[in-house]
Predict the 3D structure of the following.
Amino acid sequence: MLIIYIRHGEPTYDPDGLTELGKQQAEAVATCLSIDGVDQIFSSTSNRAIMTAMPTSKRLNKEIAYLDFANEKHVWNNLTIDTPSGKSWLFQSKKTIELFHTQDIIDLGLKWYEHPEFENKPFQVEMSRIQVESDRFFSGLGYLHLGNSKYKVVDENDDRVAVFAHQGFGYAFLSHLLNIPYPQFCTHFELGHAEISLIEFKNEEGYSYPKVLSLSNRSHLDKEI
């Protein structure tokens, strides 16, 4: 199985949608994905993600299945921090970025949210929600998570599965999938607008260890726009 993760195109947030450039980016994604095709299309329930998925859905004549757990409103409420200038993503706050790179946070690994600085914050609850819902999603695709990014292959398939979602959600989702602590993933990797990441689930004697084939590739955008 191949997971194709696509962040939505350049957005407008009020109302929730895409700019003209974002619409062009969505068409470029559709052109790219049409080459090898996709077997299933999933999208966050936000309009900007749905609008990015729509051209691919129409070209390939595939219905879109909706994943509300991937809607960025959830992580925006729970993986952000209040700053003097307003609410900010953890991965955009200077204070948090510096904290994420301290030895204390690094030593905590996947349990980074247990740091005293984050006491009474909803970070653990939100990460747990994403982990539970992500595991349920992959189980539905035939891959049962056993922990530490090891999956039992229950229903082997060669499906190409497109997931249209967000940056904020994607950082938490992919860090769980790859068993990389969130502070390291969200501060050292990029997920750009309408860029494509490929994660392979290869059957290794009945088990699978997701492997990144490419992350945040934008060659289709450079070619089409």
In short: The longest strand covers residues 211-217. The radius of gyration is 17 Å. The chain has one domain: 2-79+126-224.
